[in-house]
Design a protein that fits this description.
By secondary structure, the protein is α/β, with parallel strands linked by helices. The chain has helices at 9-22, 29-53, 69-97, 103-132, 146-157, 174-178, 180-192, 198-207, 212-216, 218-231, 234-241, 247-252, 349-359, 378-392, 394-397, 413-424, and strands spanning 260-267, 272-274, 280-282, 294-301, 328-335, 363-367, 399-408. The longest helix is centred in the N-terminal third of the chain and has 30 residues, at 103-132.
Length: 425
């Protein structure tokens, strides 16, 4: 079955017609107008989706996986249709049973109406991109072309505020969606006290009601998030996402204890690794942008072997009471998140320790160099170098390397994809 999710536009049309014919009267003209606008917007989206689906298979992965960016945007539309249909069901139920629609539901309708309008703008850009490109990822992209400049200008001018209010993360599921609001509120609040004079910070805090405005007013939150994303520099993102590593957070944050959790520097040297073709690949040393001659990695494991990195932890060198275990068959290479500009493995120790214990395997997490000082492709070079070092030093990681698992945040999947391609070769 195809992973392409078909948006059920007819659900919107049927519900809207039912509400207008059986539930509304002359006193509901504003709601009637909103329903008309919503139906009109979905008809426009339906036309864009129909056009995108024509020949969409040509943009799928060469591995045969039915997935590409155009399929993803259609899935977002399908999710929007589902949420909007739920709102219309609520309107129908309240109007037919109570005789009126609650103010917060009317506000939700306006929110989703705004989301549909912005998504139409995005679909228009997507259609323009597809019309001018036969490939999703051209072999020789020209990022300086007039076409790219015009598309970028249009994208930057889009009002994305509707996506960051009460509709924040609507296309996500489960915990991923639930965490978006606390994260956005935290970022908006932190921006009020970041930088500037002490008087400026106090004024910004007062204006936001000491953060309560972001909690109680989705539109104020959305406005602040969009304002931050457009005006604040990369140092703000680094400071915010590095908060889990600050001293005061470390004192109150509980990290599960574990036998082995140590940082180690891999100093760059020339070496080679075997390939599937019974040949050897000479591993390139990272050289881009900065002169640092090592990459920091962290080894996490719930046990120790004799050949593992680091010391056994005995308090005296006269005797050793450590119990060493046999090497495990599996190892995880972990690449932390942070958009290549922030964080280290310290920000992720809570779940890394849990993984290592519950899976009974070692984890090698790469603390790659961060942009903008170490811009692309430095981080990818260091991740690849770390992978090759691990392949040559399984015993130092406490594993036989029979099974190698790659794990990472969404923004580093490109690095992991490069690794997978290298493994396949």
């Amino acid at each position: 079955m195809s992973r392409l999710a078909d948006p059920h536009f007819d659900d919107i049309y049927t519900l809207s017609k039912d509400i207008k014919e059986n539930c509304l009267d002359e006193s509901n003209e504003p709601l009637d107008a909103d329903l008309e606008s919503m139906v009109a917007n979905f008809r426009v989206m339906q036309k864009y989706v129909a056009d995108l689906k024509i020949g969409i298979e040509a943009y799928d992965s060469k591995t045969g996986t039915k997935a590409n960016g155009y399929r993803s945007i259609i899935r977002v539309v399908a999710t929007l249709v589902r949420h909007s249909a739920d709102i219309l069901e609520t309107v129908k139920h309240q109007q037919s049973t109570l005789g009126y629609v609650a103010p917060e539901v009317l506000e939700d309708i306006k929110t989703w109406l705004e989301v549909t309008e912005r998504l139409i703008d995005i679909l228009a850009l997507v259609a323009q991109i597809r019309a001018n490109n036969s490939q999703l990822y051209p072999d020789f992209p020209d990022s300086q072309s007039q076409e790219v400049a015009e598309l970028s200008s249009k994208a930057l001018k889009l009002d994305l505020t509707p996506f960051y209010g009460s509709a924040l993360g609507f296309h996500l599921r489960g915990d991923s969606r639930r965490m978006m609001h606390p994260l956005a509120i935290s970022m908006a609040s932190y921006s009020d006290i970041y930088g500037g004079s002490i008087f400026g910070k106090i004024k910004r805090l007062r204006d936001s009601g000491y953060c309560w405005d972001y909690i109680n007013n989705p539109r104020a939150l959305a406005k602040k998030v969009v304002e931050n994303s457009r005006n604040l520099q990369v140092d703000f993102a680094q400071s915010f996402y590095n908060l889990p590593e600050s001293d005061w957070v470390s004192k109150i944050k509980t990290v599960p204890p574990i036998r082995t959790s140590l940082s180690h520097r891999l100093y760059f040297e020339n070496f080679k690794v075997p390939t599937f073709a019974a040949d050897y690949f000479h591993v390139p040393v990272p050289t881009s942008h900065i002169k640092r001659n090592y990459v920091q990695v962290r080894l996490v494991a719930g046990y120790r072997t004799q050949a593992m990195l680091g010391s056994c932890g005995c308090t005296t060198r006269l005797t050793c009471s450590c119990v060493f275990e046999a090497e495990k068959e599996m190892v995880i290479l972990h690449v932390h998140g942070g958009g290549f500009v922030s964080q280290t493995s310290r920000s992720h120790l809570d779940y890394l320790h849990q993984w290592a214990e519950k899976l009974s395997c070692p984890i090698l997490s790469v603390d790659y160099s961060l942009a903008p000082e170490a811009a692309y492709p430095r981080a990818l070079e260091e991740v690849f170098y770390s992978y090759c070092w691990m392949m040559n030093n399984f015993e130092k990681c406490g594993t036989t390397g029979k099974y190698v698992i790659l794990a990472g945040k969404p923004e580093v999947y490109r690095a992991l994809l490069i690794l997978i391609i290298c493994i396949a070769r």
